[in-house]
């Protein structure tokens, strides 16, 4: 099970914000972002680029939740992809 650490909350408007999390399991760590809309709808982003695409162009992410419990369950059990691997994947595409 992953350890979830809230690093930051950036409020865009009242009841809308971006939460930055660090997920860790043993030596592996991942930074991820969650768009929180009125504590009712959550969108998960693995990269800052995908979050920016959503905020700018409304490109919907594949991972969405309608309550905090579903989001927490996902974050606790998802496979961690270290940021170095994410950056390498972008560099080769």
Short description:
With 93 residues, the protein is an alpha+beta fold. It is 32% helix and 41% strand.
- Based on CA inertia axes, which overall geometry fits? globular
The computed structural class is alpha+beta
Global Rg: 13 Å
Overall domain count: 1
Order of helices and strands: EEEEHEHH
Largest sheet: 5 strands, antiparallel
Mean pLDDT: 90
Proportion in helices: 25-40%
* Low-pLDDT residue spans: none
Number of helices: 3
Q: Strand arrangement, largest sheet? A: 1-2-3-4-5
Proportion of strand residues: 35-45%
Q: What is the total tally of β strands?
A: 5
State the distance separating the first and last CA atoms. Answer: 31 Å
Q: Could you explain the architecture of this structure?
A:
The chain contains three helices and five strands. It has 93 residues and is of the alpha+beta class. Strands 1-2-3-4-5 form a five-stranded antiparallel β-sheet, with helices on both faces. The longest helix is centred in the middle third of the chain and has 10 residues, at 48-57. The chain is globular, with a radius of gyration of 13 Å. The termini are far apart.
Question: Mind sketching the topology for me?
Answer:
Blueprint: E1 3-13, E2 16-25, E3 28-37, E4 41-45, H1 48-57, E5 64-65, H2 68-77, H3 83-92
Antiparallel strand pairs: 1-2, 2-3, 3-4, 4-5
Which features would summarize this protein structure in a list?
alpha+beta; 32% helix; 41% strand
């Amino acid at each position: 099970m992953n350890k979830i650490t809230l690093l930051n909350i950036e409020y865009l408007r009242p009841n809308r914000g971006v939460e930055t999390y660090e997920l860790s399991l043993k030596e592996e760590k991942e930074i991820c972002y969650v768009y929180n809309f009125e504590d009712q709808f959550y969108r998960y982003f693995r990269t800052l680029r995908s979050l920016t695409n959503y905020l700018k162009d409304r490109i919907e992410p594949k991972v969405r939740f309608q309550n905090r419990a579903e989001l927490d369950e996902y974050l606790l059990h998802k496979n961690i992809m270290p940021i170095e691997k994410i950056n390498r994947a972008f560099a080769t595409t």
